[in-house]
Fold this sequence. Notes:
This protein has nine helices and ten strands. It is of the alpha/beta class. The chain folds into two domains: 2-198, TIM Barrel, CATH 3.20.20.140; 210-257. Helix 7 packs across helix 9 and helix 8 packs across helix 9 (240-257). The longest helix has 24 residues, at 200-223.
Amino acid sequence: MLIDMHVHTDRYSACGRMTPDEMAEAAKAAGLAGVVITEHNVMWSEEEIAELSARHPGLLILRGLEVSAANRHDILVYGVMDASLFHKDMPAREVVEIAHQHGGVAVWAHPMRYHRMMDEEVVNLPFDAIETQSVNIDELHYPALHELAVSRKLPEVYNSDGHDTISLGGYANYFHQAPQNEADLVKIIKSRAYTPLVRPFWAEPAMAYRNKRVADRIEQWVRAGQTDPEYLWKRIGGSIERINSMVAACLTKVEKAK
Length: 258
Ligand SMILES: [Zn+2]
Ligand SMILES: [Zn+2]
C-alpha cells in the first residue's frame, strides 16, 4: 500500500491550502492508500482522526507531527501521541531524543530547504530516516540528499509535504505490510519495510505548480524592489541555485517591460 507520511491541511497549518476533506479526496483520487497528517507543531486529536476517517472509508488516516526545531530544521515525529512534549524552536537533538524516549521515530524533513550546507549540529543525529524527495525539495538537491542518506546509512522516505491537493500522489512510500495504527507505523519505519516511490504522473504537475508559485512570489518581491537571492531564499525556501536563476529571469522580464 502507498502511504504519504507528510501532509498538511488548513485545520492546523496556517500555510495549508486544502481542507481535511479536500486532502482526503485528493489522496484517494491519486491512488494513495494512506496518509499521515503532520501539521506544524500541532497534532490532531484521536476524535478528529476518527471523524475524518469515517467520512473517507478506504483511506487510512494516521497522525504525526512536524516539529519546527531551532535554526529552521523541521523534524517529522511519528508514534509519540503527546504533542506537548515538543515545542517550536527546541533543539533538533532534543526532538530526536524525546521521540526515541517515548517509543517514536524521527525523520529529518527537507534537510537543505533553508540550508546551504549540512549543519554539523543536525547531520549526525540518530534519525530513523531522511526525507530526500518531496514537492518542497528542489530537484536540484535530490542527488545530494540521496548521498547524505547513503553516507549516514539511513533509509530515504519520499512524501508530498502537500499543502494543496495538486501536491498529492507524486511522492509516497510503498509499505510491504499495512500499518493499522501509529504504533505499527513506527515498527515498519524501524524495520525499514518500505520503499520510497516517485510517481511522475502526479509529481510532474505538482512540481510545475510549485515552481510557478515560487516564480510568482519572486516576481512580486522583485517588483517591490527586493532582488537579494539570499533574502528571498530565506523566505521562500527551496534552493539558492533556483532562486538565483529565477531572480535573474525576473529582472530581465521587468527590465524589458519598461
Ligand atoms: Zn507548511
Ligand atoms: Zn511539512
